[in-house]
């Protein structure tokens, strides 16, 4: 009987230890799951705050940026990022503050500009030692300095640019990629830095064309 009693005591003791280990294991698993949930929640919160502060979205409407962008393309915009030459930016036109346009930066502060009536010449390669051609001074194609961009602007824009020999600080000349169907600096004039919402970084929709934007 004593042997049976000892055996039973050992059996129940081992079973008790095993049950305790199982309970501790379940508690540890539960704690791990709770910790993982907390980490995921905090991570999502950080990502959400980052997006609110640094990123905005933009939906393309119209054909002005074909073939680069199409109607209904959804974009991520890096807010507050300074644009480089050829960056795609979104900005608010002066007269339509509720609107948001997306265009390509073609002229940067300091670029040389001059006019032939309502034809604008823009050049970023001219050194400071080269004189800027005078406004309304006709130049044939052979005489244009290397890197010169020639565009026709409205007379209203030409009047705004008259007298300038370079793009002023914190102002930009922008164009749509689809020049034949775009409202840009040819009609709006130079775009000020304070009008710029940010630089286009990524297309997240449609899914078959998602990726970084050049």
TrEMBL record:
Query: For this UniProt entry, which segments traverse the membrane?
Result: 35-53
Q: Which Pfam families match?
A: Peptidase_S26
Q: What is its EC number?
A: 3.4.21.89
Name the Gene3D superfamilies on file: Umud Fragment, subunit A
Q: Which domain of life is it from?
A: Bacteria
Asked if the Swiss-Prot or TrEMBL record annotates the protein with the keyword Transmembrane helix, the reply is yes
Every copy of the Peptidase S26 domain together lies at: 39-205
User: GO cellular component terms?
Assistant: plasma membrane
How does this chain sit within the bilayer? Single-pass type II membrane protein
- Report whether Transmembrane helix shows up as a keyword of the record: yes
* Gene Ontology molecular functions: serine-type endopeptidase activity; signal peptidase activity
Please state where this protein is localized.
Cell membrane; Membrane
Which InterPro entries does the entry link to? LexA/Signal_pep-like_sf (IPR036286), Pept_S26A_signal_pept_1 (IPR000223), Pept_S26A_signal_pept_1_CS (IPR019758), Pept_S26A_signal_pept_1_Lys-AS (IPR019757), Pept_S26A_signal_pept_1_Ser-AS (IPR019756), Peptidase_S26 (IPR019533)
Give any single GO term for biological process.
Answer: signal peptide processing
Q: Which residues form the active site?
A: 64, 103
Keyword terms: Hydrolase, Membrane, Protease, Transmembrane, Transmembrane helix
Reaction(s) catalysed (UniProt annotation): Cleavage of hydrophobic, N-terminal signal or leader sequences from secreted and periplasmic proteins
- Annotated coiled-coil positions are none
Similarity comment: family membership: Belongs to the peptidase S26 family.
Name of protein? Signal peptidase I
Q: Which organism is it from?
A: Enterococcus plantarum
Gene symbol of the encoding locus: lepB
């Amino acid at each position: 009987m004593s042997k049976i009693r000892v055996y039973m005591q050992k059996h129940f003791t081992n079973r008790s230890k095993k049950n305790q280990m199982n309970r501790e294991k379940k508690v540890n698993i539960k704690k791990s799951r709770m910790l993982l949930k907390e980490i995921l929640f905090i991570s999502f919160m950080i990502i959400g705050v980052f997006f609110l502060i640094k990123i905005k979205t933009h939906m393309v409407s119209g054909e002005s940026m074909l073939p680069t962008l199409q109607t209904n393309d959804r974009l991520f915009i890096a807010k507050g990022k300074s644009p480089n030459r050829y960056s795609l930016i979104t900005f608010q036109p002066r007269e339509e503050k509720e609107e948001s346009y997306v265009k390509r930066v073609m002229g940067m502060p300091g670029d040389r500009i001059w006019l032939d009536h309502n034809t604008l010449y823009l050049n970023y390669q001219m050194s400071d030692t080269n004189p800027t051609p005078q406004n309304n001074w006709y130049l044939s194609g052979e005489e244009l300095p290397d890197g010169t961009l020639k565009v026709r602007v409205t007379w209203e824009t030409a009047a705004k640019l008259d007298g300038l020999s370079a793009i002023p600080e914190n102002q930009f000349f922008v164009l749509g990629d689809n020049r034949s169907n775009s409202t840009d600096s040819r009609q709006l004039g130079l775009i000020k830095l304070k009008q710029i919402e940010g630089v286009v970084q990524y297309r997240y929709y449609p899914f078959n064309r998602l990726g970084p934007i050049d």
